[in-house]
Amino acid sequence: MEIKWVEDFIALAQYQSFSRAAEFRNVTQSGFSRRIQSLEQWVGAELIDRSSFPPVLTPAGQLFREVAEDILNRLFDTRAIIRTEKRIGGKSLQIAAGHTIALNFLPAWLKALSAHFGDVRARVVPTNVHDSILMLVNGNCELMFAYHHPELPLHLDPAKYEHLTVGIDTLMPASRPNLRSAPMYRLPGTAKQPLPHISYTETSYFGRCLALLLGRASSAPALLLHYESDMAEVLKKMVMEGEGMAWLPKSAIAAELDAGELVPAGPPSWNLDIELRVYRDASNRSEFLDTLWQHCRAVLQSGV
């Protein structure tokens, strides 16, 4: 039995809707339903009466909810005590961020933060979007950095999770240059000579961004999948070795573009701008976190 199954069950009891509870828990409805079924199998009884609308708890479900809520509250209270004892001393931050953000944005951001606040000790956990969200929702970090596009929202309750837009990045096609400094692989390619495409996995956030961008194109480019990964840094390495072209975040290849080691593989019409956001749990009233948040907001408003 997993704690997340119990949290799913409590969310379902509160929302009385599989779709709304799944959205709240940031999981697909089919995945959410499977987890509820797994919990029922572990308990050995049906907890949800699915014959009614909206779904309601069975007598077994009502009994389980009472005990489950009490146990979860005690577990989380104990965890909070332990985490307080384990926290880094002084001004400190637990940060979850995507790998690209952790490598290309956070070092300069933390340096600027230290210039204002003095010594700030940060523990950065590079991870994928799904795990970053789980860290934020489960209280395992104070700040979460993630990319955002209005057509690909993260489904975080804005009343519970505040955010600031701290930058704009651009997903752009890139290629090694040829001897004339033109791209070795240039969009859109042709049916006879499709471009070797180094791509993201479909379920990654950049993969979804790329699918959105290509879905908007007036005509589909001629691409031949050569390699795929969910990490932009892996794609970048393959492009640097001349293995093909890929859409890469501009922040990850700024130095290579300036040095002429990489060049755009197509005009700006093939680019997609995405926000870089920082999120916090609004219920976390840490004095240092509040002060930092207000400082970040003031800096953004002033445009400095």
Automatic annotation (TrEMBL):
The UniProt record lists the HTH lysR-type domain at 1-58
Which key words tag this protein in UniProt? Answer: DNA-binding, Transcription, Transcription regulation
* Gene3D superfamilies attached to this UniProt entry: Periplasmic binding protein-like II (3.40.190.10), Winged helix-like DNA-binding domain superfamily/Winged helix DNA-binding domain (1.10.10.10)
Q: According to the lineage, what is the superkingdom?
A: Bacteria
Cross-referenced InterPro entries, in alphabetical order? LysR_HTH_N, LysR_subst-bd, WH-like_DNA-bd_sf, WH_DNA-bd_sf
Q: Which Pfam families match?
A: HTH_1, LysR_substrate
Family as reported in the entry's similarity comment: Belongs to the LysR transcriptional regulatory family.
Q: Cite the PANTHER family for this sequence.
A: HTH-TYPE TRANSCRIPTIONAL REGULATOR, HTH-TYPE TRANSCRIPTIONAL REGULATOR YJIE
Task: Please state what the protein is called.
Answer: HTH-type transcriptional regulator YjiE
